[in-house]
Amino acid sequence: MSLLENVFAGGETVTLDSVLENREWRSNLQKQLEEKHPHDTILAIKLNIPGAIKNSPALKQLFTAGWRIFMARLSFWPVRYVKVLKDRVTGPEGFLVVAGPITEVKKEAIRFEQHFFLGRLFDIDVMAKNQDDYQLSRQALGFSPRTCLVCDENAKLCAQTQKHDLEELQTAVNDFYQEYFVKDPVIPAWDKKAVVNAALFAFLAEASTTPKPGLVDPASVGSHNDMDIFSFIDSSISLEGYFGSCFDAGREFHGSDLKALLLKIRPSGIRAEEAMFIATDGVNTHKGAIFTVGIFLAAYGYASRNYQDPSLSFVLDVVAQMGADLVAKELAQESVHDMTAGKKQYEEYRFTGVRGEVAGGLVPLEKVGLPELRRSSGDTNARLLNALMHLAANINDSTLIKRSKNPEIQKKMAEYSQKFFELGGADSDAGMAYLKELDEAFIKENLSIGGAADYLILTALVGRLTGLI
Amino acid sequence: MEIKQTAMAGTLESSDIQIVLSQGSNGIEFDLTSDVMKQFGDDIKQTIEDVLKAFKIDSAMVKVVDKGALTPVIKARAITACQRALDMKDQPQWEVL
Fold first, then answer.
1. Using CB atoms and an 8 Å cut-off, which of residues 257-276 of chain A contact chain B?
2. Whether A33 and B97 lie within 8 Å, measured CB to CB
3. At what angle do helices A192-208 and A240-251 cross, to 10 degrees?
4. Which pLDDT score is estimated for A335?
5. What is the DSSP letter of A11?
6. I need a surface site. Which of A293, A308, A344, A432 has the fewest CB within 10 A?
7. Taking CB atoms and an 8 Å limit, are A20 and B39 in contact across chains?
8. DSSP per-residue letters across A49-74
9. What is the ipTM of this complex?
């Protein structure tokens, strides 16, 4: 296991006594919940992690991913109580009270444990005051007992006979992390409402992240005197319907030529731009992101159309197929009308801009933004700043090039980014101080990294869909 | 040693064991329920008895509900139960919701 990708990295060792005491604490909490909610069903959700390290940044990511999915599956029943404790040294865990029949709730929990990619790592106990048995078992409902993390045998028997050593078990947990988040991230097949919410979250998260060099954030309008954070809030809200129609178009698409899917969402894209301009009194806040996120959502809708959880690479392959004609046919076409920044730069420097990014399958999302978000420590703001600065150094940012009128600016940007990470990135005081300086310097020179910001929105979107944030 | 008060340790969660110790009159008496009674019933009793001996308890009623606990867990729960029964350790004060 390499240290960088070790799911246990940064975790604290716990003793058997603290684990056992935690169980008594949990059992006591459950009893109290049963007393308070005698007619409802109580759920205790936790990870099943062998060994002395039960919590770490990566384990928290795994918990968050599963917790979100399970919450969505339970949305059928009214939820009376929610308590999430992600930081307990004995492992992240959460409690729920739902107004649903215990057997149905338990079946939903078993389905989650059996079918969700990370389900094997979760342990969901379901109980109710009016239930004879303390906790409803799988066997009582006719399901087979849980299988072991390593082999397909009954987990209890493997544990009792200590069939696998600890390293084997921990490697199995690590493999789950690698397969879900690292090698080729798995994106669960969410329903429309969750996807629209994730997109809206991503747009608002990007706008809220601060301080971003030259960009609009809650503390500064950056190098954009014609807009402020509220323009971005209004603009984001105006796009809600657009997110849903792009996703729907993908889910409902039949056919093998995915270029047709792009043509299908184009009218929605034009209407979305109109809605944005109306919401911002005519200022371009999100034109690039409308393009990339709309195409991404349609591609994701298509890739998850059979309610199978697609991999990120599959979704991005659909993106590339949708955009196959964007550069060759559109950008290269002679057009003196509608000279966008992208087209102008193509004429001047042969940079293919946002169209080229889509045609190439949004590579920096997969290779730069998302890995940085996954590895970064600190709060959500710090993680998003690190992702932004890493993206800014690794793309051709058409906003930045347009404003500096010199493509060499990308080299400088890479140097700024390198210095930022050498100082410790956004999770350090020195890194944050440097970012503020950079923001001031960008404002003075009227520079902005709008292209990186668009990629940050995509990163936050996939981060939310997978459970990274 | 005399058991001063009935004491409980452990939970009914899977992989755990709940042990309730109370005063006995006829040596060590077991009331054991286990998912793996056939395979491990005697081992579980032996593990608990060894702990009781170490605490010099020779008369007790031991009610055990095992949910597939491993030996170290059985041992730790038995130790806590003895400490609580002999007043060597405070009963836990859990937070109230």
1. none
2. yes
3. 140
4. 59
5. P
6. A308
7. no
8. --SSB---HHHHHHHHHHHHHHHHHT
9. 0.90
